[in-house]
Write a structure and sequence with these properties.
- By secondary structure, the protein is of the alpha/beta class.
- The chain folds into three domains: 11-196, Methylglyoxal synthase-like domain (Rossmann fold, 3-Layer(aba) Sandwich), CATH 3.40.50.1380; 286-406, AICAR transformylase, duplication domain (Cytidine Deaminase, domain 2); 438-561, 3-Layer(aba) Sandwich (Cytidine Deaminase, domain 2).
- 35% of the residues lie in helices and 19% in strands.
- It contains 20 helices and 25 strands.
- A six-stranded mixed β-sheet has the order 12-17-16-15-13-14, sandwiched between helices.
- A hairpin with a 2-residue loop joins strand 18 (418-422) and strand 19.
Length: 569
Amino acid sequence: MNQASERQQRTALLSVSDKSGVAEFADRLAQAGYRLVSTGGTATVLREAGLTVVDVSELTGFPEIMDGRVKTLHPAVHAGVLARRGTDDSVLAAHGINTIDIVIVNLYPFAQTIEKPDCNFSQAIENIDVGGPAMIRAAAKNHAFVSIVTNVKDYARVADSIEQTGDVSDELRIELAAAAFTHTAQYDCVIADFLSASASLTKPSDHDQHRVGTVDDTSDPKAKTKATPDPDNGNNPSRLLLLKQKQALRYGENPHQQAAFFVDASSRRFGDPANPEKSLMQRQSSPSLSDAKQIQGKELSYNNIADAAAALDLAREFSETCCVIVKHANPCGVAVADTADAAYERAYACDPTSAFGGIIAINGPVDEDLAGIIIERQFVEVLLAPEFTSAAIAKLQTKPAIRVLELQAPWTMDTAPSLKTAGGGYLIQSADDALLSAEGYRIVSERKPDGTQLHDLLFAWKVAKHVKSNAIVYARDGQSVGIGAGQMSRVYSARIAAIKAQDEGLVVAGASLASDAFFPFRDGIDEAAAAGITSIIQPGGSRNDNEVIEAANEHGMAMLFTGMRHFRH
């Protein structure tokens, strides 16, 4: 319990930007015998509520200066907050300083400020709180004697504890201190992210003209040359990630695991220091799964979120109308078509067995007919689309367990970095958002792909990028016809893709193949040829590239090297 000195009245210091509920809280403190000390606008609100308030300037004997920039940064405040009862009493008495028992502070609304469309760089900087974090940290450090309240939601709990026991409990003070340090850490992280992005706008761009590359050991160095990451592209792994819990989950991948869904709450806006009055610019950011609106269905699970994110990421690759069906983080059917109905039909046809209990993402509107086809044909865990007609929603409500998510268009490529725990640490990498242009590949075979083959090769390449390694994708006419995923051997991935196609009665003869990484030996090419594949797209770069190219030529295949790989673990 607090060992507040008997010689003075207990004191609460209030200085808040969010003034909701503060007058009611202060009134309960006053009723419990607390002296109220406050600053600026907070003091005005309390006085308007009929409360007696002591200005901080009266406490410090020094006026607020610099338009309020300096008001609480004074020994009379910080010594009162940091004083250890029974240890520092003589120091306080010598300097005429009273202890402060409760600190109620929330910070300048930096994140909210930079989200305003008309906010400029100067305004953002002015909303960086200095005195507030200092008081919060001081009170949280001295939580053995001082209660720090940073969240409006805690006002009632603190007041209840005081009214019921005469003080704030030890347990609650520790909990409030932990929340306070979390609050300041998140606040600083948003500011750091904002300034890091802003600083990149002032850096010269000549690194684009003198970029350093790295070359892997390869028979053809050009096939594996890759640029070093651009430190100014806003997606560098070194940028700060501020993780904020969005949803507590029932369990993780399995019922015995605990889990929660966190999102990156870092600043998404950046300013131009060279033009302080210029409005802030929004980073290019496609809507993410965390922005989706759940129209109906059971609560999303850990696996639902992981699989829905995988389906969305693949659907983002296509500008055409497409349907992606995912099962256990791997696509089991992908297709493009003129209509959403046709895209779904073709995606489902690739692997109806695996589609059962899958996640479906369609990048176009879902109408009543399509909703009806889906729910009559298969069990689906999550259905994700940018729009559902009212009739489609009514149809889906006949299956209330289906999780229906609406995520606004356009579903453009996501550039957010990814994070994964490993070995007691975190692996953070920039997004695998590299695109293959029409000139970004080399034809290495004697046979050249025709227009249809080239279209299918590029389609299959986009799909393979989202299949767990080792990945093999067979495709024809904008439809996956066989997918081999997650195998330790690329040969076995090729065999599995062929088996799936054969089981579903899909024609492989004349289809195209994409591989997420190079073929180390010709056996994978021979396996594909036996299945009827006539064209292949792969990164190239193996020591045995010549052997692999020779195999393609023997089988009369067209082969493209992309010079980039898409491992996915």
